[in-house]
Amino acid sequence: MLKLLLENGADVNDLDGNTALTNAAKKRDFLTVERLMAAGVDINRRDASGKTAAEVALSEGWDDGVEILTAENQQRLMEEAEALFD
């Protein structure tokens, strides 16, 4: 279902200012985190409490979530930096 929604441009943020990615991090839902990142969601977007998904994962003590989110962020930053020099 998530894949179908993402493919059709569904808004991944709720009305309260929370993001699907931070909600997935709160639930320690690895598969949803991976799918949202693959869909290109903004991993640095802050939720209603001002936290990124990585910060939520950290506050929940979800080390695997912190690792995947920070690794993805580093990868995206490297790609952006490389594009500047092409």
Percent helix: 55-70%
Domain module count: 1
State the major sheet: none
Strand content: under 5%
Output the helix-strand order: HHHHH
Looking at CATH, the homologous superfamily is Ankyrin repeat-containing domain
The whole-number mean of residue pLDDT values reads 86
Q: Overview of this structure, please?
A:
The chain is an all-alpha fold and 86 residues long. It contains five helices and no strands. The longest helix is centred in the last third of the chain and has 22 residues, at 63-84. The mean pLDDT is 86. Pfam families: Ank_2. Keywords: ANK repeat, Repeat.
Keywords:
single chain; 86 residues; mainly alpha; Serine Threonine Protein Phosphatase 5, Tetratricopeptide repeat; 5 helices; 59% helix; Ankyrin_rpt-contain_sf; Ankyrin_rpt
Topology:
Blueprint: H1 2-7, H2 20-26, H3 30-38, H4 53-59, H5 63-84
The gist of it:
InterPro entries: Ankyrin_rpt, Ankyrin_rpt-contain_sf. The chain is mostly helical and 86 residues long.
